[in-house]
Amino acid sequence: MSKESRMRATVNQKLTEMGERERLKELLRAKLTECGWKDQMKAHCKEVIKEKGLEHVTVEDLVLEITPKGRALVPDSVKKELLHRIRAFLAQHAT
Amino acid sequence: MSPAGCSHVNGYKVDNWKQNLRVIYQCFVWSGTAETRRRKAKSCICHMCGAHLNRLHSCLYCVFFGCFTKKHIHEHAKNKRHNLAIDLLYGGIYCFVCQDYIYDKDMEQIAKEEQRKAWKLQGRAFCFLTENLIQLLKQGHLLSQCRHICVPFVSTGIGEKYTTWEPTKRELELLRHNPKRRKITTNCTIGLRGLINLGNTCFMNCIVQALTHTPLLRDFFLSDRHKCEMQSNSCLVCEMSQLFQEFYSGHRSPHIPFRLLHLVWTHARHLAGYEQQDAHEFLIAALDVLHRHCKGDTINDNGKKANNPNHCNCIIDQIFTGGLQSDVTCQVCHGVSTTIDPFWDISLDLPGSSTPFWPLSPGGDGSTVNGESHLSGSTTLTDCLRRFTRPEHLGSSAKIKCGGCHSYQESTKQLTMKKLPIVACFHLKRFEHSAKLRRKITTYVSFPLELDMTPFMASSKESRMNGQYQQTVDVLNNDNKYSLFAVVNHQGTLESGHYTSFIRQHKDQWFKCDDAIITKASIKDVLDSEGYLLFYHKQFLEYE
C-alpha cells in the first residue's frame, strides 16, 4: 500500500472510531438536501430508469450513470465545509 | 426488483441466520457502541487490497470483506460460490446470481431494527458521559478541566433519524373506510371558522383565532403530537386539539366554544364570569395553562413546581418563549449585572400615557429598515421598541446594590432581546389603570408587515458598545426577520368595547374575524387598524 493510502486508512480509522464519520455523513446528507443536490440526483435517476425500463434497470446501472454527475454537482461550499470539519477534528485529535 | 426478494436467499435462511445477520449489521454496518466502532475501524478493509473505500461489501457466508468497485467481492463470490453479500455503507443485500440488490422482507425488517437500535445507542452514549461530567463537577474539578475532558465525548448529536411513514394495518383500515380526501389549494379557506359569542367572549374568540392560525401550533396539533397524561377530562391541551379538529374539519358554520370557555373558567378563575375581559390577560392565562397541561401533572416527581419555563421544552415554550436580557450598569464602577428572564410577550408603552414617551424623529437609525409609514409624525412599532430597549436612568431614589462597589449606587437599566421566540407577541398598552385615571389610549401606532428585530437584540447592543456604530443591514442574516400573521383590535371604550381580529391565511390573504362573521380583508385594512396585540412569526426557522 502506498504512503497516501496508508494515511487515508489511518484517518478513516480515527474518524470511524470516534463516531465522527457518522456525524460527517449526516452533516453531508443535510447539506446536500438543503442545496437541492439530492433532488437533482433523484430527477436524474428517474430519467435513467425511464430510459432503461423499470423491469430491467439494476442498481449498478444507476450507480454508473449518476456517479460522475453527482460528483461534479457537489457545491464547493459543501466540500469546503466538510474539509474544514475534518481538519479541525484531526487537529484536535492529533497523536 | 420484486419486494418478495429472490429465491437465492433461501439457501441462506437456515439455522440461526437471523442472529448472524443482526451481528453483521451491529458490528460492521451500523456500529452503535464505541467498541463496535473500534472493531469496524480496524477490520473493515478489503481482504484483497486493503482499501476501505470502493463500496466495501461483506460476504454473508464467511468472514470476507471485498471492494465492490474493484470486483474483489465478485471474485470471492465466484470462487467460493457464496452468492450473497452486504453493502457496508447502506446495508443493502446483493445477490450475485440475480446480479442486483434484492429486497427480502425479513432481511429488511432486521435491517430497520438494527439501524434504529444503533441510532438510539448513539444518543445514549451522550447521556452516560454527561453523568461522568456531573460526577467530576461534584468533586469540585474546575470547569475548564471538564471542558477539556468532554470534548472527545461529545454526543454524535444526530438526533432521531427520519424514516418514511409506513402505515400500520389499523391505519390502512381507517384510510379505506374514510375515502374522502381534502385538497389544499392556494385559495382554499380551510382552517377558517367563525366563533359564536357566548356573552362578551369576543376577547377569547380573538385569541383562539390567532392561536389556530399559528403555523407551528397548527402542525403540532394536526399531527396528534399531544400525549395526554391527565386523568380528568379537564386538559386544556386536549381541548385545543379538539378545537383544531373543528377548525380544519371543513365545516363552515360557526363553532360554539362552550367547552373551551368552561375549561378556561376552571383553570383561570380570575377570568370567569360574563364580563368583558382583557384579551391580553386571556392570552397569557391560556398560554400558562397550556404550558402546565403539556407536561401532564403540574407537580413533577421532585415535588417541585414544574413551572420554570427555562427547564421546559413543551410546544408552548418552543414557540412562544423568548429571553429578555436586563443589564443594570453601575454609574460609578460601570460594572454590569445581567439577568435573563423568559417572556411570552412584550408590553410596550404608548405616547399619551402618563409615563413619558420620547417619540424619535423619523429617519433615525433603524426606522427605514422596517419600511413603516410615518404619516404626519405618527408613532411606529419600531419607535415603541426603541423606547423599550433604551437605557433608563433609575434615579437616586432607586439605588441598586452594586457587586463591584459593595454599596448602593445609582445605575442605568437597559432591556434587550437575548433570545427571540418563534412567535413574538407585542402588546400595546392601551388600557391605562393608574391611580388617577382609567382610560384607553387610542393613539395610532403604525406597524409593519415585515419586522427586523436585529436592532433590539442583545448582540446588536454589544457590537454598538464595541464601537461598531454603523449597523450594516445584513441582508443575508435572516435570523431576526418576522412576518405579521395576526392582529387583535379593540373598539370602543374601557367600559364597553368589542374585540375583533385580523388573521393571515396564505401569504397575502387576510381575513377579519368578528366572532361568527368572517370577511375578506385587505392588507390596508389590517395596517390601518389601531392594533392592540400584534403577532409576528419568524420568517426562517433553523434546525435545532
TrEMBL record, chain A:
Compartmental location: Nucleus, Nucleoplasm
Main location per the UniProt record: nucleus
S-adenosyl-L-methionine recorded as keyword: no
Pfam families (UniProt xref): EnY2 (PF10163)
Gene Ontology process terms (BP): chromatin organization; mRNA export from nucleus; protein transport; transcription elongation by RNA polymerase II
Function: Involved in mRNA export coupled transcription activation by association with both the TREX-2 and the SAGA complexes. The transcription regulatory histone acetylation (HAT) complex SAGA is a multiprotein complex that activates transcription by remodeling chromatin and mediating histone acetylation and deubiquitination. Within the SAGA complex, participates in a subcomplex that specifically deubiquitinates histones. The SAGA complex is recruited to specific gene promoters by activators, where it is required for transcription.
Full protein name: Transcription and mRNA export factor ENY2
Organism placement in taxonomy: Eukaryota, Metazoa, Chordata, Craniata, Vertebrata
Gene encoding the protein: eny2
TrEMBL record, chain B:
Location of this chain's protein in the cell: Nucleus
Signal peptide: none
GO BP term, example: proteolysis
Entry annotated with the keyword Lipoprotein: no
CDD domains in UniProt: Peptidase_C19D
Reactions this protein catalyses: Thiol-dependent hydrolysis of ester, thioester, amide, peptide and isopeptide bonds formed by the C-terminal Gly of ubiquitin (a 76-residue protein attached to proteins as an intracellular targeting signal)
Start and end residues of each UBP-type domain: 4-121
InterPro entries: Papain-like_cys_pep_sf, Peptidase_C19_UCH, Ub_carboxyl-term_hydrolase, USP, USP_CS, Znf_RING/FYVE/PHD, Znf_UBP
E.C. no: 3.4.19.12
Keywords annotated in UniProt: Hydrolase, Metal-binding, Nucleus, Protease, Thiol protease, Transcription, Transcription regulation, Ubl conjugation pathway, Zinc, Zinc-finger
Residues in USP domain copies: 193-539
Pfam (any one): UCH
MF terms (GO), sorted A to Z: cysteine-type deubiquitinase activity; zinc ion binding
Cellular component GO terms, alphabetical: nucleus
Family note: Belongs to the peptidase C19 family. UBP8 subfamily.
Protein name: Ubiquitin carboxyl-terminal hydrolase
